[in-house]
Target: SDR family oxidoreductase
Amino acid sequence: MTLTGARERRVRTGGVELCVAELGDPEQPTVVLVHGYPDSKEVWSEVAGRLAGRFHVVSYDVRGHGRSTAPEPLRGGFTLEKLTDDFLAVVDTVSPDRPVHLVGHDWGSVQSWEFVTVKRTEGRIASFTSMSGPSLDHFGHWIKQRVSRPTPRRVGQLLGQGAKSWYVYLLHTPVLPELAWRGPLGRRWPGILRRMEKVPGDDYPTPSLPADAAHGAWLYRDNIRSRLRHPRADARAHAPVQLITPVEDVFLSPRLYDDLERWAPGAIRRTLPAGHWIPRTRPDQLADWITEFVTSVEDERPVPVASGRHADRFGGQLVLVTGAGSGIGRAAACAFGEAGARVVAVDRDTESAVRTAELARLSGARRAWAETADVSDERSMEKLAERVGEAYGVVDVLVNNAGIGLSGSFFATTTDDWREVLDVNLWGVIHGCRLFGRLMAERGQGGHIVNIASAAAYQPSKALPAYSTSKAAVLMLSECLRAELAGQGIGVSAVCPGFVHTNITSTARFVGVDAAEEQRRRGRATRWYGLRGYPPEKVAAAILRAVVRDQAVVHITPEARGARLLSRFAPGALRAIARLDPPL
Ligand code: NAP
Model:
């Protein structure tokens, strides 16, 4: 998607001519997208295309950028006051009778903070979505507070942000930045963005980049020093604010927004595990959040924000859980739902997947869908990956949970039994990692894979040769994949529960015995697991924690942790236990 299909017009203001692009129906609420540095309005192409179905979307090249003309002289031509004049000239043209919804990224956000906190724009802005660009006034107060009342933590914060701001000092040097941008840096920038920020596509940045970057250096020179030294005391927002913070932003510390409540009471906060250039790397997510925020403000109803544990980490994320129709999978789908994720509940049984999707919605999921697939069937999983990719996007968190139980001695276990267990418990995980993990890696924006193994992965038992082998393989696969994906920001966790009270005991097969004995063993196992009483919800909570903390292996339940300790420090004892007849 590009802005090529947009209607363009020129707006004259303060000695410059701005190039303004419009998409969508002008009768709908107007969303104004303001780009950052070094950028042009095309940074918004992907987001604008997604918003245009519902809104009147407007984006303009900031003075001196893209196809807008530059002020003469450059010095003093980029002050926040002049940028506010430009903004008002644009909105007076595109939406003279109705306040607009403002969205800014990077310097687009820095200047939008000015627009939304000065008197003369009151009544012209309906809402503001800020990403990766703080108010210079708020930043100035943030620095002053830390300098005047230093504590080790505050000094650490100052130094941390100071280190991230290295480029700001460079941009204050005369001439050099212009020479660099019009020379080698300008030529290399598209490659740098692709490599460092994983920005996809060849249509961005536009050829105007070297000139944009050279002119835009004045954004810094005209404003930073003066505002940071003398920040305005009354820089409070006069419209509702939504703050989107990409937590892997190499230029800005999330700590900068610690005092946000003071300047924008009731601001909605979202975080995204992504780098700085989110308009190009996470357009789906941004379009979704902007739509939700703008629609809520227009309809005068509260923004639906999840308040569950880890909501700041998983809000809006796409989470896919296999085997979600029951037990641990269902509990995990609901826990991610409670944290505000968008949940895809997959099971081979459609009805139970649909029920889980309903429960996830009731728990707080922003959206939840049911999908039917057999994880052991490669074709079925390929079709699932295609459907999910087209309908919902790239999965942020994948939970390979589907599994079946099988108990019986090695010689009682037929080759078909082996195949069945390995097909579901191991191949199911392989298919999931291969298909969804590859899409995650190609997107280049990180993600997380959770594979549900078991304490049986390291606790041998003469009664569970096939099941334990499948789970040991899942554990090793997870470790290998974790090593392989580490450089791509994708975490892999293996979760190893002990005895958890779910349906697995009533569906597990007991081989080598007749049907009546199998039924009896199922009944005993179910009673025993029931007495043990460890709920799947606790496993679900551990799964979310594993993602938040990026844990390699998680042992859940005391018996799983005990077995792990024995396997490391007294493997002989564990081998002796393996020879005992199971109590079932
Ligand atoms: P559960 O209640 O039986 O849930 C497993 C779900 O996976 C069921 O809805 C099941 O559907 C589904 N499933 C099975 N095969 C599938 C396939 N080929 N494709 C798609 N879905 C499939 O069991 P659970 O205890 O929650 O088990 C979840 C995971 O935890 C498993 O990997 C299990 O090995 C592991 N685990 C469980 C325990 C425990 O004590 N419960 C301990 C350690 C590890 P059907 O009902 O139609 O079969």
Observations:
- DSSP finds 23 helices and 17 strands in the chain.
- The pocket of NAP is lined by residues 322-323, 325-329, 347-349, 352, 374-376, 401-404, 424, 428, 452, 454, 497, 499-500, 502-504, 507, 536 (CB under 6 Å).
- The chain has two domains: 7-298, 311-500+535-578.
- The longest helix spans residues 415-443.
